[in-house]
Amino acid sequence: MSRLLFPLLFVVSACTAAPPVPPPSPSPSADSCPTGVEYAVTGEEAASGLRVLTLELTNCGTEPLTLDGYPAVTVLDAERQPLPVAVGHGSSGISAVEAFDAEPRPVTVAPGGSAVTGLLWRNTYTDTSAPPVVGEHLELAVAPGEPTQVFTPIGERGDPVTIDLGGTGKLGVRPWTAAP
User: Fold this and answer.
1) With a threshold of 0.70, does the pTM exceed it?
2) Residue 59 C-beta-side C-alpha neighbours within 13 Å
3) Do 48 and 95 form a contact (C-beta atoms < 8 A)?
4) What distance in Å separates the CA atoms of residue 156 and residue 43, rounded to the nearest whole number?
């Protein structure tokens, strides 16, 4: 009997209907990209206390986006509260970095296209009477006065990136340029 049961079960299971086809995934909506842009970390450099973080903006909207100048940047702590950081255009006296001090030029980003900017700071901590300034999130806008979004920098290896300003409290911002 058991010799006959196995082939019978095999035949019956082979005759059952195919599993249902899953419904198509929904197309992206405005909710998945509320400000029309997404940010990603595309480069990290650190040497002798000097830090550079490269950020890439992707236009996830449906219209071309023209960027002219610098993004608006606010450094936030772990609770997403603003930190006392002086944000300046260019290298802001932090270090002589040519790409940061280049003259801003308009960049048009097509839907699905990208542009880059960068953040520059020194991790120098000499005043032990105050805790070091460490940001875990950034509030970003394509330009001052434009809609903002909170961005948590994740490095290329999947690790969180902190904006470890030490006691300097200064951050330089590079102008928008076309993505390489």
Assistant:
1) yes
2) 18
3) no
4) 7
Cα 8 from Cα 27, distance rounded (Å): 44
41-95 pLDDT per residue, tens: 999 998 888 999 999 999 999 999 999 999 999 999 999 999 999 999 999 999 9
User: Residue 68 CB: number of other CB atoms within 10 A?
Assistant: 13
Which token pair is 54? 């490269």
User: How do 86-89 and 170-173 pair as beta strands?
Assistant: parallel
Type of residue found at 138 = L
Place of tokens 């449906």: 62
What is the residue type of 53? L
CA-CA-CA-CA torsion sign (70, 71, 73, 78): negative
- The tally of CA atoms less than 13 A away on the side-chain side of residue 21 is 3
- Distance between CA atoms of 60 and 64, rounded to whole angstroms? 10
3-state SS of 17-55 is CCCCCCCCCCCCCHHHCCCCEEEEEEEEEEECCEEEEEE
Phi-psi region of 127 (alpha: psi -120 to 50; beta: other; left: phi over 0): beta
Whether residue 167 has pLDDT greater than 70: yes
